[in-house]
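REVIEWER CHECKLIST
Item 1: Sequence provided? yes
Item 2: Single chain? yes
Item 3: Sequence as submitted:
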Amino acid sequence: MGFLNSVKALYMAVAILLLTIALGLYVDLKNEEMHSRHLEVTTGLERMISLNQNLTNMLLIAALEQNTLRTASYATLTNELETSIQTVVSLTENQNLSQEISALSEGRLKLHRIEEQALELMRNDAWEQARHLLSSETYLLARKTYEIDSETAVGAVSGELAATGQRFRRIRTISLSMRLGALTLLVWVGVMFSRKTRADLTEQIRLREELAEANEVLEERVQQRTADLTSTNQQLEASQARIMESLLYARVIQASILPDPRLLDQYFAEWCVLYRPCDIVGGDLYWVREAADGGLLVAVLDCTGHGVPGAFMTMTVNSVLNHIVDTLCSDDPGRMIQELNRLLQDTLRLRQTGESLVDAGLDIGLCRIDKDRHHLTFAGAGISLYLGQNGLIREVKGERKWVGYSGSDQRFVFKNNQIPMDSATCWYMTTDGYLDEGGGQKGYGFGSARFRELLTQLHGLDLQRQQENLAQTLDTWRGTRKQRDDITVLAFRF
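Item 4: Structure as written out by the authors:
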């Protein structure tokens, strides 16, 4: 702040010095202008007096000599005299000389009237009368008055010139004093500025030395921190490598519970599946199992979460479903979902206290296919079954219930829907990952209406081409956005 104040003071001193120099130049110019104007006024007055004397003498001599030739230049001298008077009046209009100049003009006018009368008498050869008029007391008094007024005007001009000169000398003295004061201020501010600059330079050198020392310490700390971070990163990379290795192995394990494609080729005339976990492993699962009585069970499941937690849920659900088929029921999809709800709640809760270990569950669409009787039985919890027939898509909705959660009703009976089968019908089940995938201009979900419209366009194609179109349509809809949920779409024909 002190440095800034020094700079401001330096600028102020320079500004004052420049201002006083400019004022002094202005005073000098005005002084020169005043002297020039007063010189012109003095010259004009002297010329007026001289011309007036010439006119008077010329008329007297002409009257005495009775010579009309001398009167010939009277008009010329009169015009010169009038011009001199107007010049003096214009030069003194801004000064306090109006009274003197007016008296001088009036005196000249009186003389001019008498001289005109004398001149007229001389033109008429009345020389005696002309001499008498020019030697009359009136004319002589007018001449004496004019001479006195002339001397008064000259004195007034000289006095005005002296007063103005004195005033300008005072102004010049003040201007010179201001210049000296500004110069003194400039020198003083310069000295203070120089001291401040030297002090600032000394402080900068000290701070630079301290900064250099701090940088050395900081560099040592950075090197140590870099070494620590390098070691930590190496440990983190090793840990990430182990985690990735574990996840890849988990994917292999999860893939092992998925249906064998060769068995699916035996069960269906055509089939396809779009299976896209959001992470390396996921919480979606498609499940196919042949029952002991020859019926075929097909399910699509969407477990809570994705990634590793979702994958653990799929392993749990897969085991519980197999247990239900092996020991409890395989011919009633509605009852199978009810049992799945009960067993998952028991599995995920502490039996002694009833306290929930984890509040998780799933959505499921489950079909039992009886090829001998040519009908399909469907029951669902949160997942629908879609049928493509004769250019139309029909939706068989699952119950608006969820399975396995602590709040799920174990006594709820899930409805079975029996549907006749034929070779022309295409059957679809999908998790909500496809329906909820954000995209388009505003990032909205794909939606069930748009999904049914897509199936209407595709269900007449072979299922391999349908799978490609389902994947391409979803990728186009999502654009550059990241996939946000596990996606599974299963389709088959008999």
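Item 5: Key structural point noted by reviewer: The chain has two domains: 2-198, 258-493.
Item 6: Recommendation: ____
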